[in-house]
Amino acid sequence: MTMKDNTDSMVRFEKVKKVFAGKAVLDGMDFDIRRGETFVIVGPSGTGKSVTLKHMVRLLTPDQGDVYVGKDCMNEATGSRLAVLRERFGYLFQGGALLAWLTVGENIALPLREKTTLTEAEIQKRVHATLEMVEMAGDYDKRPSDISGGMCKRAGLARAIVTEPEIILYDEPTSGLDPVTSRTIDALIARLKEELGVTSVVVTHDLHSALSIGSRIAMLHGGRVAETSTPVEFVKSKNEEVQSFLKSQFITEAGQWERDAR
Fold first, then answer.
1. Same domain flag for 1 and 109
2. What pTM did the predictor assign?
3. In this predicted model, what pLDDT tens digit does every residue of 59-86 receive, in sequence order?
4. Pairing verdict, β 199-203 and 167-171
């Protein structure tokens, strides 16, 4: 199956349904992510944000509907074709997911050793360049237990981008971090988008982060996308679910985002 011709589309969901224990977590999910944008998926817990992300790399497969990457139907790909499609992605897991028995540098080098034919010298050159990119140039030999939560996220991000993917998936990149560190991660996501020209997909509860980095924000409710809009339009939305979510994080008329949206 081939997706409708749309050269700007990187990821597309068409009427995707996923049921767990009799409950439809995704119930006719439709959206389109454009090349080069930062598409942020928000919503309360249990609305299917991480489930949506996992469908993009086929860690989960739809019960109904289709997921496309470019013009390829992800849920029909198998074997080597599925492996090639997955290589278009970098994935930052919620906790960083570093291997405790490897150093930071060895963690970042791992996908290069597993998936490429680069020489050891080439691997080391790319790892050190990537560490510089995430501002961890002196941390190659440290263990995950020796660095902070924010640094673990940055190291996890370095591992996600070291293979030079087209699309980076971020699962709750600021979860568990203090506000200052969270804003540092936001700035890093924005900078990598500009420097690498990647398409970014971010799942987050953190609306301050979403409004800062997003090209567009998609609000999930009832297994579907309730609203998709730019940050300024999102704050102005008349959708009751959107307004309730905004107010839950104290983004109100008195806040900076409301002032900017006027």
1. no
2. 0.86
3. 999 999 999 999 899 988 889 899 899 9
4. parallel
